Amino acid sequence: MKIRTLKYWVLVVILGMGTISCEDFLNRPTEDNYNESNFYQNDEQCVQGVNYLYNSPWYDFQRGFIKVGEILSGNVYEGNSPYLNFTVNGTDENLVSMSYSLWAVIGHTNTVYNRLKTANASDAVKKQCMGECLAWKAMAYFYLVRSFGAVPIIHDNTAELNSGSYNSKFKVERADVYEYIVMTLEKAIELLPAKGESGRIDQYAAKGLLAKVYLTKSGVSGTRNADDLAMAASYAKDVIDHSGRKLLTNYSDVFRLANNKNQECLFSWHWSAGRDPWTQQNSLQSDLAMVGFDEFGDCWGGYAGPSVDLQDAFGISALASPETRSDIDARRRATMMMAGDVFDYFWRDKGGFDYLKFIYDADYGKGGPNGEYQSPTGANHVKHLYGNNGDHVTGLGVSAGNMYSGLSTHILRLSDVYLIYAEAKMGTATSTSDESAIDAFYQVRHRARKGYEKPTSITWENVWKERRLELACEGDRWYDYVRLAYYDSQRAINELTAQRRDVYYNLGTTYKAYYETGNWTVNPDETRYNSNAKAPNVTVSSFTLPFPTEDVVFNPNLMEEPVHVDVRSEFSY
User: Fold this and answer.
1) Which of 372, 405, 438 is the last residue in one of the domains?
2) In whole angstroms, what is the distance from residue 359 CA to residue 123 CA?
């Protein structure tokens, strides 16, 4: 943890991070209109004062979000990535940025929370904004403890600075960090309104996160704790039954610009379409889309994509003809684009986006791959893409630009809560015939596979796989492996090492011939999966990422054994 930067985060004028966004929800004060002493003088200023917590401090986590959540887990292939072969070290730029970002969130939420205590505003709005601060703080700690294991607790920036201990903090035991997250969310729930403005965190959003925390926490001792599972089920059921939130009818609609603040999404990063200041924007399309996908010259993700193993999980193959491909799960096409796919919600001003035409028709795909098939896996990303500028203007009414869009990134969805309930309701068993658990599972599966009949029982394996398909490429899968490794590390290791995490050879030969002639012919001697692919070297220690080297240099105590802290008696809100 870059604790030495706490001083910076406390001393900055913390609200001076933005301009006016394209959405009223994200309106922020301009830098020259206020200072620390004259802000937080009414309800509107309090709301503006927390708006940036939905984007700017999280910006440097965007790449780690994919690399840790999806490449480590085997959902995404990116050649030569240390996240692919489990060789990440403390100098990795994306690891450092991820850690920096998460601690920045905690620094900002602590400071804004404490400043709101003395705000000149209505009690209801002060509580709402303080609750939002705590919910985001809990989310940051949830990512930290699942990524790095035992970590320090920074409860109050000012207290840490006054004590002079910010460069000598010890890690706190993992179980205690989870208890701190629970305590923080309990206070957030107490403060938040039951139903908030669309897109904002409310009481049920915090309860949904708390359900996920309890599900993860349940295995931290090495065996699954039935009481924690019961709490996970209870909070999840409360959200399902009482929040008023429903799944959208069409899965792919969740990720469209027009639905940035849809009811299914409990926690989202809500980005602004601009670069002033840098960090308010979504830059994921640049990393994930093929060159030429938009007109800003900022896409370079064509040589990476959803993995062969993820395709296997969906029951499809890049070697199968699009005409005969067994493609019954709507989530596949909403997650990855493959030969034969056409998308009506991308490139609407051109009549839709045709995947192979974009690659092989130089006029249609002007500025694109120009005949070169780039993906080593037979698939490219769909999630986190907004399309071209015409799509962005249609969706939000404003232009996108070089490395920026206003497409929201959803990090906790209602379907996740349904699956949390289904798994938690099993308790420590491996299956259940409980009707409420089956119904929760069915709601998720039925949306993706029309005509799917409700089963009479479900197993842990059913839910485990469903989580992968439902949340694929949303930065979550690695953390499922982490929580599995808490109580069954060998199972997690076995599954990861058995994955097909490598590449196909010569896909372009088959795809170009198919595009030009309509004939699908695969020569298995040329177009094939790499049979010499090596399994990754996954060990028990692989489930804890290293601290950034610079942090350890400034605080050697990070290398010492963690300490036990009774967080309920040590800290209070």
Assistant:
1) 405
2) 57
Residue 204 lies in a domain: no
Note down the domain range covering 296.
284-405
* pLDDT score recorded for residue 14: 39
Residue 30 shares a structural domain with residue 171: yes
How far apart CA 504 and CA 237 sit, in angstroms, is 43
Same domain, 194 and 318: no
Q: Which amino acid belongs to residue 139? A: M
- Tell me the backbone φ, ψ of residue 296, rounded to 5 degrees: -100, 5
Question: What's 43's domain CATH number?
Answer: 1.25.40.390
Residues shown for the chain: 573
Would you call 296 exposed, middle or buried from its count of C-beta atoms within 10 A (0-12, 13-18, 19+)? middle
**Amino acid type, 481:** Y
Residue 505 pLDDT more than 90?
yes
Q: Are residues 291 and 193 in the same domain?
A: no
Backbone dihedral region for residue 222 (phi beyond 0: left; psi -120 to 50: alpha; all else: beta): left
Reply yes or no on whether the pLDDT at 378 is more than 90: yes
Q: Both 17 and 128 in a single domain? A: yes
The helix/strand/coil state of 411 is strand
Residues 66 and 168 in one domain: yes
Say if residues 305 and 341 touch (Cβ distance below 8 Å): no
Please answer whether residues 240 and 443 qualify as being in contact, where contact means their C-beta atoms are separated by less than 8 angstroms.
no
What's the start-to-end Cα distance of the chain, in Å? 23
1-10, 244-253, 367-376, 486-495: which range is least confident on average? 1-10
Task: Return the closest-CA partner of residue 318 out of 334, 299, 337, 290.
Answer: 337
Total structural domains within the chain: 2
Specify the pTM: 0.95
Note whether residue 148 is domain-resident: yes
Write down the H helix ranges in 321-476.
330-335, 355-360, 389-396, 414-425, 435-448, 460-471
| Residue 153 to residue 405: CA distance in whole angstroms | 33
- Give dist(CA 189, CA 203) in Å, integer: 5
Last residue of a domain, one of 405, 425, 450: 405
